[in-house]
Design brief:
Length: 323
């Protein structure tokens, strides 16, 4: 072959290849998989003030699912201190603008940090989606004698769980006030009947329980004179804590480990009410005057209203530690 023809033939083949590539049809684009439309779920938390809601209030969580598909449900999950608390499965109802709406709520019966999220599980009609957690804190009111309602009921329940006395019913009575005084004494707070917001918060959080010093004694009593309370305990659990007034400096209360030896029901000539003696003339008894400091002649004074119950709680031969 003529050497001059070779380059010309090669060039012709290259040109033909380029022309064929230019006129060849483009490869078809891959088809998108068919399926339900993707969902978008959003929520808002209501009844918040500065990112907080009051204890025992009802907090609603309202949300939307876009687009709306009939027969769908959303799982609204509530969390307390980062742990799953409960889940409510709620129906999605037709809303405005092609979206669906839903609502769930929770009553804040415990203190801590709450959060909520919503999840729509994918179905044949609509895709899935999950929201981020919306968080809020709990606020607490101050409480006072005569006040009634769910917060008072919850507060008294939390007090009794730690062993402090509280009256029954829905209102804050005198017995609950004495329980508050005992709580304040145990925790080194100013001695009053006031349940301020900080105290209420601590009680709902289960903080401030009396620490039993003689857990190996089984069911027994303790009278820590520095705290001015009388404590009934089973092992290491206090179950009844009362405010008292012990002996003043000139007539101090005897200290040590004793057992109850003698009863005296009703009033005696000294104004002692339902006395239960643990050492000689030293007794646990009710009295008309029970200040929040040591003031007795050596006995352990209790409030008249509390003493009949205390008298019935004590057993002959039961241990009492006075220190």
């Amino acid at each position: 072959m003529n050497r001059r023809l070779v380059p010309a033939i090669l060039g012709a083949f290259l040109i033909a290849g380029f022309l064929m590539a230019a006129v060849a049809p483009a490869a078809p684009a891959p088809e998108k998989p068919s399926g339900p439309p993707e969902a978008t779920v959003k929520i808002q938390v209501g009844h918040l003030h500065g990112g907080q809601a009051q204890i025992y209030s009802e907090v609603p969580v309202v949300g939307t699912v876009t687009p709306f598909a009939a027969g769908q449900h959303v799982a609204v999950t509530f969390y307390l201190d980062g742990r799953k608390l409960l889940t409510r499965n709620v129906a999605v109802r037709k809303g405005k603008g092609g979206s669906g709406s839903f609502k769930a709520s929770i009553v804040l019966r415990k203190g801590g940090r709450y959060a909520a999220s919503a999840k729509h599980v994918a179905t044949a009609a609509l895709g899935g989606d999950t929201t981020v957690r919306k968080k809020w804190k709990v606020s607490y009111p101050a409480l006072h004698q005569g006040q009634c309602g769910n917060v008072v009921v919850g507060f008294k329940k939390a007090m009794r769980k730690m062993g402090y006395i509280a009256n029954s019913g829905r209102c804050f009575g005198a017995r609950t006030a004495r329980g508050v005084l005992a709580y304040r004494k145990v925790n080194g707070m100013s001695r009053s009947y006031r349940a301020g917001a900080g105290l209420v918060k601590r009680v709902f959080e289960g903080k401030g329980e009396y620490e039993v010093l003689h857990p190996g004694a089984g069911e027994h009593l303790e009278a820590p004179l520095s705290k001015q309370v009388l404590v009934f305990a089973k092992g290491d659990e206090p179950f009844a804590v009362y405010p008292i007034s012990s002996g003043k400096s000139s007539t101090p209360t005897v200290t040590g480990h004793f057992t109850f030896i003698r009863q005296e029901p009703g009033y005696n000539s000294h104004g002692m009410y339902y006395s239960f003696y643990f050492y000689g003339g030293y007794a646990v008894h009710g009295y008309e005057s029970v200040p929040d400091y040591p003031a007795s002649h050596g006995c352990i004074r209790t409030f008249i209203a509390d003493q009949p119950e205390i008298y019935e709680r004590i057993h002959f031969g039961e241990d009492i530690f006075v220190f």
